[in-house]
Design brief:
The complex is a heterodimer of chains A (300) and B (494).
Chain A: H1 2-20, H2 27-49, H3 52-55, H4 74-83, H5 106-118, H6 132-138, H7 179-187, E1 205-206, E2 214-215, H8 217-226, E3 234-237, E4 246-249
Helix pairs in contact in A: 1-2, 5-8, 7-8
Chain B: H1 6-10, H2 17-43, H3 58-90, H4 97-119, H5 141-163, H6 172-191, H7 205-240, H8 247-260, H9 276-288, H10 290-304, H11 315-337, H12 340-346, H13 351-380, H14 387-419, H15 426-463, H16 488-491
Classes of the chains: A mainly alpha (300), B mainly alpha (494).
């Protein structure tokens, strides 16, 4: 309803304004009024009345259209967390299980501050949009990635939604790689992903011994935060509970591909001059198997 | 409508001290932040550039470049334009020149603190001194305080001038100046509210994102745009020496700008986790933006009608006309980008970077350049040091920008299409962008060379041997100096 009410109210306001200014007999005013009406109709047509424009990329639009949004303060979230409840963000949305809300530990909260200070959100978004190509891209193996949900963000202050993907989306990064992979990658990204243009965050390491850099507190906090990203997101799985269905973490254990242990608290370090990325123990990048497609019907 | 006899206002001698101080703050900052932007663009090609220097890592340079260009360059130079044109449009002197100088000092200190806090060589995470971590809202709390204080001082100064005006009629540029002063105050305070310091009652998650993008879009729409339009509405008729096409049309543009722009923030999160209806509202209002844009653009082109031959030699006019073309293009592009079908491809890509540079460079900065080239010779009562250099500056900026943005649009759109093909790894789509990033860095280099020429030209103009005083109308400058013109002379062909 609001979609229609707000612009109509707006048009009425403009009309009143025009009357007050006594500019209605002015030719330019009439043209402008016509322009307002025409652009409104064009915008409405493109966005709402021609759904096929959106079907091309979108997973679904009908369900989302009924969403409303409530304002949550941190105190509300904390109360819901104490009570073990999840605040209903969807109208009439009572049968959606999401898992218990998990706030950040002190270390993870510190990691968020490092993430913020280093500006990770300028190159990495934290939202999977409900688009087919995007779901296919960020799925791993047979684990189909769930799209972004409002409730995932309620602990975030500041938010790290992001507007740019110079690097890939990170909202499902938790659990995908080992801590050691992340340390090696932060120390020198190009030894893990050939061609990466990510900065090397060497100041997060004590590298007085260049052959054996050791992550400092900032790096450990940062990685502990990165490992929470999307880690608690659950999806419905029909095969659980003997065919009755149930909820499980979205990333299946067998799809956590990059868990090779490099060494406790150590960083794999290869001289960038002689290394073109092939020398690394683990190749990064979003490796997708050919079977990794959106299932028919696009259900999650 | 003349309230004062012309003879009296003709005697007004504007000191323009406040305008000069604000101008030099802006010119100094655009060179600095332009070089930072160039470093950022080179880092796409040489990611190991300055390796290990934490305060020169790309994600720290990037917000400093963006915020610096808006608050370090655009707003100081528009302040200078306000100090220059408001007294002339009001037929009175600036209320307090000294206050204007202090305003610039406080403002520049705030910008410098922002640079320190976001580049953050001390690696602090305190919200008082370091970034607040939201795009466009990076301002450390300490630097925000300086900016707010300076803005209040500017508002007091301009309004005090305004209430002492001797011309009763308010020319449209004054409307936009007033609008900019009002809107900036509330947009900046809402956007930079330090919610980290009051976590118990702060907005969380997506509410935070909504406020963020209300602010992020309003920075361009309600701060930079009205300031730029005020400049253009004053300097276009002045430099073309032609009356404004339609004053009433410009007022329609003013009111629709104020009422439409604030709805647009959500179009930065189309298909995101925010409510669907909010995205749709933002899309529709993005289309409604055609109204204020077309009213301004129609007005500007209507004003230049019959004066196109001046484009060959008139540098300020050249910048304003190019800026108007870019204004039309960037707004059209912005409206269509808000459509879900296009946004699905272009969102998150470099397309958007090309778009935002067209707004801040092609539109806002070109208008500011025009204002500088028109106003600086009149502030210093000397002819411009070199028209040829100004021409070079124009063409370097123009060609550099076209290279810059076209490369990003083509490359960004291509990358968006590639992302929808899950058989391509992410890193291969990054590698496909690299040729476009080379062209972008080349365009950026041309733009920065233009900036150095611009700054040098203005510097030589200001420091040229003084022309002997008492030459009102004698040196060819004051002949063009319309400081004694009434606003009504902007509105009708004499």
């Amino acid at each position: 309803m609001l979609v229609f009410v707000i612009p109509i109210l707006f048009l009425v306001l403009v009309g009143i304004l025009l009357l007050i200014l006594k500019q209605v007999p002015e030719k330019s005013a009439i043209l402008t009024g016509l322009g307002i009406g025409m652009t409104f109709i064009i915008g409405l047509t493109f966005t709402m009345l021609i759904p096929s424009f959106n079907e091309n990329w979108s997973q679904n639009t009908a369900k989302d259209a009924s969403r409303y949004h409530a304002i949550y303060l941190r105190s509300d979230v904390e109360k819901a967390d104490r009570d073990g409840t999840v605040p209903p963000l969807y109208k009439g949305d009572t049968n959606v299980e999401f898992g218990k809300l998990v706030g950040y530990t002190a270390q993870q909260e510190r990691g968020r501050r490092v993430y913020q200070r280093e500006g990770c959100m300028y190159c990495h978004s934290q939202q999977i949009r409900p688009l087919k190509g995007e779901i296919a891209r960020y799925s791993i193996g047979t684990s189909v990635v769930p799209v972004a949900d409002e409730r995932e963000y309620i602990w975030d202050q500041p938010h790290f939604l992001g507007t740019r993907r110079i690097g890939p989306d990170l909202s499902r990064e938790g659990g995908k790689y080992s801590d050691d992979w992340h340390y090696s990658h932060f120390y020198y990204p190009r030894q893990m992903v050939n061609g990466s243009i990510m900065p090397a965050f060497t100041w997060l390491f004590d590298d007085t011994d260049k052959s054996n850099p050791v992550p400092n507190k900032d790096a450990r906090d940062l990685v502990s935060y990165v490992q929470t990203l999307g880690f608690y997101r659950k999806v419905y799985d029909q095969s659980l509970n003997g065919g009755k269905g149930g909820w499980r973490p979205w990333l299946k254990p067998q799809d956590q591909q990059y868990t090779q242990n490099i060494g406790e608290g150590q960083v794999l370090r290869i001289d960038p001059k002689i290394n073109d990325g092939k020398g690394a123990l683990i190749r990064g990048g979003d490796q997708l198997s050919p079977t990794n497609k959106v299932p028919p019907g696009g259900t999650l | 409508m003349r309230m004062q006899p012309a003879a009296e206002t003709d005697k007004l001698q504007h000191e323009d001290l406040a305008a000069k101080w604000a101008l030099w703050a802006g010119v100094g900052y655009i060179v600095f932040f332009g070089v930072l932007g160039l470093i950022a663009s080179v880092k796409f090609l040489v990611p190991d550039l300055f390796n290990g220097v934490n305060w020169l890592s790309w994600p720290r340079i990037r917000p400093v470049h963006v915020q610096g260009m808006i608050f370090g360059w655009a707003l100081p130079v528009f302040m200078a334009m306000f100090y220059y044109m408001v007294p002339r449009l009001c037929g009175t002197k600036l209320w307090n020149e000294k206050l204007g100088i202090i305003t610039t000092l406080v403002w520049s200190t705030g910008v410098a603190l922002m640079v320190l806090g976001v580049l953050n060589p001390m690696d602090t995470t305190s919200p008082w001194w370091s970034t607040k971590g939201k795009e466009y809202e990076e301002w450390p709390v300490v630097s925000s305080i300086f900016l707010i204080v300076a803005w209040v001082m500017l508002t007091v100064n301009i309004w005090s001038t305004f209430v002492r005006r001797t011309y009763k009629q308010m020319y449209v540029a004054l409307w936009y100046v007033m609008g900019c002063l009002m809107w900036t105050s509330f947009v900046y305070v809402i956007g930079n509210w330090p919610s980290q310091l009051f976590p118990a009652n702060s907005f969380m998650g997506l509410n935070d994102a909504n406020v963020n993008w209300f602010y992020g879009h309003s920075v361009v729409g309600l701060i930079a745009t009205p300031a730029a339009l005020a400049t253009a509405y004053y300097f276009l008729p002045k430099s073309a020496n032609a009356p404004l096409y339609s004053h009433k049309l410009s007022l329609i543009g003013f009111w629709t700008l104020g009422s439409i722009y604030i709805w647009n923030g959500a179009h930065h999160m189309i298909y995101g986790p925010i409510p669907y209806w909010l995205q749709t509202v933002a899309t529709i209002f993005s289309f409604l933006l055609f109204v204020p844009v077309l009213s301004a653009v129609t007005n500007f082109f209507g004003t230049v009608r019959g004066e196109w031959h001046q484009l060959r030699s008139n540098v300020p006019l050249k910048f304003i006309v190019a800026g108007t073309v870019f204004y039309l293009l960037v707004s059209t592009q912005g409206s269509f980008q808000a459509l879900r079908s296009l946004n699905a491809v272009t969102h998150f890509t470099d397309w958007v970077i090309g778009h935002s540079h067209m707004a801040m460079f092609g539109f806002v900065t070109f208008y500011a350049f025009a204002g500088c080239y028109y106003a600086v010779p009149r502030m210093y009562k000397r002819p411009l040091y070199s028209e040829g250099m100004a021409d070079w500056h124009f063409w370097l900026s123009f060609v550099g920008f076209i290279l810059f943005s076209t490369a990003l649009w083509i490359g960004g759109f291509n990358q968006g299409i590639e992302w929808n093909n899950p058989n391509l790894t992410f890193i291969s789509t990054v590698n496909d962008m690299k040729p476009f990033w080379h062209v972008r860095a080349g365009g950026a280099a041309l733009m920065v060379i233009g900036l150095f020429i611009f700054a040098w030209n203005l510097f030589k103009t200001a420091t040229a041997p003084t022309i002997t005083p008492g030459t009102d109308g004698g040196d060819g400058i004051d002949e063009l100096d319309n400081s004694s013109r009434t606003p009504s002379s902007l509105l009708s062909r004499v």
